[in-house]
Design goal:
- The complex is a heterodimer.
- By secondary structure, chain A is mostly helical.
- Helix content of chain A is about 70%, strand content about 0%.
- In chain B, about 30% of the residues are buried.
- Chain B is mainly alpha-helical.
- The chains are: A mainly alpha, B mainly alpha.
- At the A-B interface, α1, α3 and α4 of A face α2, α3, α6, α7 and α9 of B.
Amino acid sequence: MKCEDVSKELIAYLDRRANSAERHNVEEHLSACSDCRTRAEELRRLWNVLDEVPMVEPSLGFDARMRARIAEEPRPRWFNWLVPQPRLAFSMALLLALSVWMVQRPQDNSGLAAQSEHEQFQVIKNLDVLENYDVLSKFDALDEVPLEPTPAPADQAQPNDQQQDDGG
Amino acid sequence: MLDVKAGDDASFELLLQKYRTPLVNFLFRMVRDTATAEDLAQEVFLRVYRARKEYSPSAKFTTWLFRIATNLALNSVRDNRHRRMEVSLDAPVEEDEAPLQVPTREMRIDEHMVERDRADFIRRAVASLPEKQRVAVLLHKYEEMDYGEIARILDCSESALKSLLFRAYENLRVQLAPLVSQAVPHRAGEGRPV
């Protein structure tokens, strides 16, 4: 064991918190190294020196001041369980807002559905009129619509076709 | 602490009685002012009281208590340092702020210094340690906490803590050399030297 390695274990050895293997290693090194042995001895003396510092006692009014400060603290009330924690309240509000939004989404779709139903109803309402051929054929307004030119008779078209065939 | 969590104020009173003296001493050794140490100790207890409902017994109560105390003390030390720097950079150095005068080995300290001065000399040596070393020494030497607990308070590994403690005690051994050379060492089998 080198001096640097001992330095890490020396305090634990001196305050008797090192395990038996560590203690054995340190003791083996100290028996061979006079510098570390001197250092260990001085550290033991140092602890005695540090004990010379007297303890200070809290002042007489310490407890009374402490009790007064504790008394000023808000006391837990029986209805405190009703008051949610801020984080819980925020989470609940967020959940509520999300629920409302989720509920409103299907309502928008049903609105669209209702609109298309209205259009369908209008079509169905006029269905008897649209399906009644007599009404449509005798519809006076149709008389005013100009007639489309009638296609040429089939026998007039035939010679032309023949001429084309001959020419070809 | 679990009784305090359940709303038992009498148990909080017991905690106060048990821990006020070690806590005030720890804070006094950190900030070196009794009034500030007491104010900080009250703040620690108040924070424990306010957080009692959230307390979970996953760690030792003392670990939690001294972690709060350490954070408050370090903040106070840093705030105080900043405040003093803001006052005046040209202000004369106060007696309390004077660099640590290490007496030479030739001086007969025990003849010239009264006991109070010796204690003050030791306190100043401890206070001159870097923050983390100071906390480690105070918790190890005076609060007698185990390595695991101190490591959790300082948020480091036990191995790192052992190195930290060795460096801290080495610094103190050098600074307090005149006193160390006169001190009587612990004898083998005397019990825990710390």
